Amino acid sequence: MKLFKIVIRILYSTLFLLTGCTSAGLSDCKNVTLQFQYTAGSSTDVFSKYIESVMLYVYDSKTGRYIKSLKITNTELQKKQAVQILLDPGSYDVICWGNVGDNTVFNDISLGESKAEATNFNTGKATTSDPLYFGRTTINVDPDLSETSALVDFVCAHIDIWMYTKGITDISSSGENISPILSVNGLKSNYDFNMQLITDSITYYPEAAYRDDKLVTIAHCSVLRFNENTSAQIKISKGSNGELIDNIDLSKFVSDNKIDLSGNGEINISILLEYSTLGLIIKVPNWDDVPVTPSW
User: Fold this and answer.
1) Sheet arrangement for strand 268-276
2) What is the total count of domains within the chain?
């Protein structure tokens, strides 16, 4: 029986050589299939709804050594929600980041899995982060290079913050209302390749739009995930001269409004800052009073 298995393995390896599928692997033959999935905390796969592209990184799971990387485009994902790659025998960690765009860069990729980072392209000050998603799996490739597959189950790696302000009067010399400057301070800007937050904080200055029909300024940014104990603050300043109007404790708003920041799905934080003769009212918006999204 042992001799039979040896003969079979030799024949299998010979077939790979004849077809060009060697472990050196400069052919189009692929022995690993990675299937992508994102359920947003439910039982339904909604990957195609939220994730448009994937950056994939492969590391030796024993040594952390960098092996290879590739980008799977939206065109490729529309054809097949999976990718096939060629790997030599061994055990590998596969790390995937979804929706990497102009706001994300990767540092120290070739230095090993423990050194690699995903970070905001802008340091210290940014308009937004990319709406990132994260997935990882471990896969083993047998010595005979037989085909194998694994599922990469993604989680949401960002939080969307929508800020609405009403009642701030800041008139320009031409008689037009100047939108306030909204910023979110004290959030992390880096993930390691386990999606753990690391290093320095960042300040977001999201793009804002003024809606004349609702007399409201709207600003939006995607940020890296944070928890209920965040020290982040939302600052409102005059657009004309930068004078600080208010500081809002984000953790208190989350607690007061019982916003759940746990889980692996989508999180949207919407906050209305409304000024009147009675002072500042901070609340979750009523969509009859403010639009769900701006007309950018």
Assistant:
1) 208-211, 216-224, 158-166, 268-276, 279-283
2) 2
